[in-house]
Every structure is written in structure tokens, then in C-alpha cells.
From TrEMBL:
It holds the Pfam family zf-RVT. This is Reverse transcriptase zinc-binding domain-containing protein. The lineage of its organism: Eukaryota, Viridiplantae, Streptophyta, Embryophyta, Tracheophyta. InterPro entries: RVT-Znf. Residues 91-137 form the Reverse transcriptase zinc-binding domain. It comes from Panicum virgatum (Blackwell switchgrass).
């Protein structure tokens, strides 16, 4: 599987490696879907529809960490599977190495968000609480206060006049861009930039081909929103 969309998702959760280091050593002998390594239940049980779209069952945590969750799936996902994918990404995001999680592990002394400098950097904060994220949502006509917390993001409902079928995919795109933007600020010392966040306009075009044919025209809506 290739394409910028999947390249993006491949590194969507860079924390995978840290997760595997902490929880399952190097993950080489732990089955990503079938073993209970996340704490609650095997992922194949938690996300049964998504599991039915797995291209290679029995893949190790290490292999999925290396290539990305989405790249372990068949190219065309059903609507339910895409919803479960978003949910799975979000569940794993609780382990993302945002500053709040790192502080809990005593790896960092401070968890203050480097974008707004005034709140703890949790995943939910990055998605909808941070001032620049809120500007992003408002700019596309969405109320950031109606964006669910990260763990419940799969329950997001379309706002404004957005097409009702494709939000899980497009919200994943928005979150991915917010995460990339955060990396630019934290690791590349760039200034927070709303303009940079709207580079997802080009990505939306690439993601079009991962939507079912009947939903591809929805991308036009999102392209008209992702402009400064
Ligand atoms: Zn912030």
C-alpha cells in the first residue's frame, strides 16, 4: 500500500515505538491484533469490523509499528471499519507522547503546550483546546467546543453544512495535520501557523481515493473549507 495518505498515517502514531518499548519490549513476538497488549482486550475483539479488514493477520506489534496501523489494512474500508479505525487511532493516542503523558512518566518536568504556552499539552488539547486548533476549527466553520475529547472522537458529528458520511476520514486528516503542525513547532522551532494547517487542502485531494466512490465528491466540500 502506498501513497501520501498512507505515508502520513504510517507515521501518525510515532509513539508506537515507545509503546512497544514500554509495554511489550520490542514487540517482535506480540501479535498486534490478537494479543492483549493494550490492557483491556485484544484489538481484534475491540474492533471486530476493522479486524475483518486486516490484510495480514498475526502481524507483530513491531511490524505494525514500523509500517503504521492503516498500512496493515486492505485498501478499501467499509464505513464501519473506517469509524473503528478512527476509534483505534484515538485509543492508541492515549499513549501518544504528548507532554502531559511524558510528564506523567517523569520524562518531562513541564507539560505546558508549546503552541499556546498556557495549558497542559494533552491530546485533546492539541485537537480542540489549543488556541490555534480552535482557530482552525472556527475557520472551517466548526465549533471547537463541540469537538469530542480525543478518546471519544469517533463520535464526532458533522457540523455546519458538512457532508454527513465522511467526517471520520476528514477529521482524521485534520487531526493528523494538527499533530504534524505541533511537531513543526516543538521539534523544528517554527512559529505556530494557521496557514500551515491549511496545507491539508492538498492532502484532502489525495485522501479522496481512499473514500468509497459515493463519498468522493464530499472532498470538494472540504477543499473549499481548507483555505485561508
Ligand atoms: Zn496549546
Amino acid at each position: 500500500m502506498d501513497g501520501a495518505h498512507w505515508d502520513g498515517l504510517r507515521s501518525l502514531l510515532p509513539a508506537y515505538r515507545q509503546i512497544t518499548n514500554v509495554a511489550v519490549k520490542d514487540g517482535a513476538t506480540t501479535a498486534f491484533w490478537e494479543d492483549n497488549w493494550t490492557g483491556d482486550a485484544p484489538l481484534c475483539t475491540t474492533f471486530p469490523v476493522l479486524y475483518s479488514h486486516v490484510a495480514k493477520r498475526g502481524a507483530s506489534v513491531q511490524a505494525v509499528a514500523k509500517h503504521g496501523l492503516a498500512s496493515s489494512l486492505v485498501p478499501r474500508l467499509s464505513t464501519q471499519a473506517r469509524t473503528e479505525l478512527l476509534s483505534a487511532q484515538n485509543m492508541l493516542s492515549a499513549c501518544i507522547q504528548c507532554k502531559a503523558n511524558l510528564k506523567k512518566k517523569n520524562i518531562l518536568d513541564s507539560d505546558v503546550c508549546e503552541l499556546c504556552k498556557c495549558s497542559a499539552e494533552t491530546v485533546s488539547h492539541l485537537i480542540s483546546g489549543c488556541s490555534i486548533a480552535q482557530s482552525f476549527w472556527r475557520h472551517i466553520g466548526w465549533d471547537p467546543l463541540r469537538i469530542p475529547p480525543a478518546a471519544d472522537l469517533w463520535q464526532i458529528e458533522a457540523q455546519a453544512d458538512a457532508p454527513s458520511r465522511s467526517p471520520p476520514t476528514m477529521i482524521l486528516l485534520c487531526c493528523w495535520n494538527l499533530w504534524l503542525h505541533r511537531h513543526d513547532v516543538v521539534f523544528r522551532r517554527r512559529d505556530p501557523s494557521l496557514r500551515q494547517l491549511f496545507s491539508c487542502r492538498e492532502a484532502a485531494e489525495l485522501w479522496r481515493w481512499r473514500l468509497p466512490p459515493a463519498q468522493r465528491s464530499d472532498v470538494e466540500y472540504w477543499r473549499t473549507r481548507f483555505v485561508m
